[in-house]
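In the current project phase, work has continued on tokenised descriptions of protein folds. One protein thus recorded appears below exactly as we store it.

——
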Amino acid sequence: MPIDEPVRWPGEKKIAIMITAAVELWSPGHWPVYAPMAAAWPLPGAHDAHSVSWSEYGATTGVWRLLEILHAHGMPATFGVNGLVAERFPDAVRAAHDAGHEIAAHSYAQDVIPALLDVSAERANIRRCTSILEGLTGVRPTGWMSPRASGTAHTPELLAEAGYLWSGDYNDRELPRVLTTPAGSLVSIMHSELSDVRVASPQGYLDGHADLLRHVLDAPGPGVFNLTVHAHVGGRPLLSGMFDRILGLIERVRADAWIATHRQVAEHVLAHHLP
């Protein structure tokens, strides 16, 4: 059950800013149905090589551009990584880890959705992803995001059982909250609805986040600003330029903001949680 408590950010900062970067792949025989050609011109029963190639851009190119932008602004991010990405493109994941970013588990692949798995398969998926990422980076992941944010009634307990501190599968409260499970506590962290895969245009991505940042700062605190970008979408030249400009806006409000990884936020919430 959820436990609601007032949240205060370190240093009495007005808002916590979290940057979420997703690096995703689909299993062989699968691809994102929202890829431009797949959405505009489906090929029923055929292998959509174009959409597969489009999705792989994030791991081959987009992630590197996002890392450069984050480095230029000196800001930490949480990278939600599929286990398949770590297997096929280990250098990209290792580079994000070596740059000081948090590596969170994002299922084995985008088509491996916990909501479609039974309990044993879901537990095995969590263990598989944990092992792959820990084996690559040397650090056990403590955060989890399900593809489509679609977990199950068992997901919180399975994550706590596996030593996870936070989950990004919840979208019912703006501020982080502590969930209690038979296996321990888990912090839920909501993600932004202004993701680069859900806006009408690159300019809309920039304008929406600029308006949101102003609103969160002007509203009674404390607040949260979660900036989400996908390497295969927002890592492309135009959208990554907008991502760069949003980070520039964040730089201007550093005095009022705590820029943190999801793990840092979860640890802070748990440390100040009263059982």
About this structure: The mean pLDDT is 94.
